[in-house]
Design goal:
Elements: E1 2-5, H1 11-27, E2 34-37, H2 45-57, H3 59-66, E3 76-80, H4 87-103, E4 109-111, H5 119-131, E5 141-147, H6 153-166, E6 173-178, H7 186-195, E7 200-205, H8 212-223, E8 228-229, H9 237-259
Parallel strand pairs: 1-2, 1-3, 3-4, 5-6, 5-7, 7-8
Helix pairs in contact: 1-9, 2-3, 2-4, 5-9
């Protein structure tokens, strides 16, 4: 598995990815798991995949990787640690795969789906709200679901749909908001819910790792009157479980396509 995270200048982000992937390794000790980052820090996914291909082409390298049982014909699952499908998953990662395939035509590459949307992420959001002192499904609490926001309308629509699907779990209301590129922003959404009579507004941070956007959302939401802002999803067990599921789904899809 080559997990591909967005990357950040904030060192907390890489540390969070490391913690998350440790949880993945605990669940699948049979699978070699490698971290990579699209921006702001090494290793880039190209470099990780190049290294795997070169090692596998040497008998000693293949033995070192996984007891002699892995080779380029077995391939790697490239797994986006991204919460929505947008520019990075639709443009950046396919570009990486195209370059790597040109350099290593024998290396079989399988691409997993982005992490979201998925019900496990909703469970993880509720876990993080609970960590912030918010009882899941509290009928007196309205929730603002905040993502980074995207220039891709489909990614923003995914967040709006997730908010609608989350509402029936007992909350007074759930509305979407975006840290950038789309409206409403978190402060605007918090203020609107309070003006509409919500006794309490909590903000659910739909971010994988800490960084600029998560910090910005926390400050803006609390200044606007939010009672609580949840921590980022990070290494929540539901997220680690979802990574494993996306990995297994990619392998099943590949085998099905090969059989056909």
């Amino acid at each position: 598995m080559v997990a591909v995270a967005h990357g950040s200048r904030d060192p907390r982000a890489a540390a969070t990815v490391t913690e998350l992937l440790d949880g993945v390794r605990d669940r699948r000790p049979d699978v070699p798991v490698h971290a990579s980052f699209l921006d702001h820090g090494p290793p880039a996914p190209d470099r990780v995949l190049d290294g795997l291909a070169r090692d596998a082409e040497r008998p000693s390298g293949a033995r070192r990787l996984i007891g002699g049982g892995w080779g380029p014909e077995d391939g790697a699952v490239v797994l986006p640690l991204l919460l929505t499908a947008a520019y990075h998953s639709k443009t950046d990662i396919p570009g990486v795969l195209s370059r790597v395939r040109a350099r290593h035509p024998r290396l079989r590459l399988h691409t997993a789906e982005t992490l979201g949307p998925h019900g496990l992420l909703m469970d993880a959001l509720e876990r993080r709200l609970s960590d912030a002192g918010v009882e899941p499904g509290d009928p007196d609490t309205a929730v603002v679901l905040v993502s980074a926001g995207s220039s891709h309308a489909s990614a923003n629509a995914t967040i709006a749909r997730l908010a609608r699907e989350w509402r029936p779990r007992g909350w007074r209301d759930v509305v979407p908001a975006y840290a950038s590129a789309a409206s409403p922003g978190p402060a605007e959404a918090v203020a609107a819910l309070l003006d509409a009579g919500a006794p309490r507004v909590a903000v659910a941070s739909y971010f994988l790792a800490p960084g600029y956007f998560a910090d910005k959302v926390r400050t803006a939401a609390l200044d606007a009157g939010a009672a609580a802002v949840s921590p980022v999803l990070g290494a929540a067990p539901e997220v680690a479980e979802l990574v494993v599921r996306r990995y297994d789904e990619a392998l099943v899809a590949s085998r099905t396509a090969t059989a056909v």
